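Need residues for this backbone.
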């Protein structure tokens, strides 16, 4: 079972174990982690599931689709080099130990 560590904007950390294939967004919501709004429910329409992937993991994530790239241009907190949409990244065993930071604001 892969684990994901979420680091809130204030530095508080949460490590959760998730079933392989769970998205970063779904894992946060299922575990009551604040900082992901997911207004569109994971349909790649809102950009309120924005996360900053730890740079040591960024290259190991699957490439983003054009729709994700486009939505990341319209996030409430500034886009960074390792920004991703939490609903578009499923975490398998290959991403066990993934670390993501949550932005200051999602809307
Ligand atoms: S939940 Fe809306 S884009 Fe990810």
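Answer:
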């Amino acid at each position: 079972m892969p684990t994901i560590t979420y680091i809130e904007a204030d530095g508080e950390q949460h490590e959760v174990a998730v079933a392989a294939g769970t998205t970063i967004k779904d894992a946060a919501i299922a575990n009551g982690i604040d900082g992901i709004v997911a207004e569109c429910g994971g349909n790649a329409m809102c950009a309120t599931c924005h996360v900053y992937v730890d740079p040591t993991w960024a290259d190991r994530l699957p490439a983003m689709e054009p729709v994700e790239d486009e939505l990341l241009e319209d996030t409430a907190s500034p886009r960074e080099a390792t920004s991703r949409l939490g609903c578009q990244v499923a975490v398998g065993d290959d991403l066990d130990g993934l670390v993501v930071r949550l932005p200051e604001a999602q809307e």
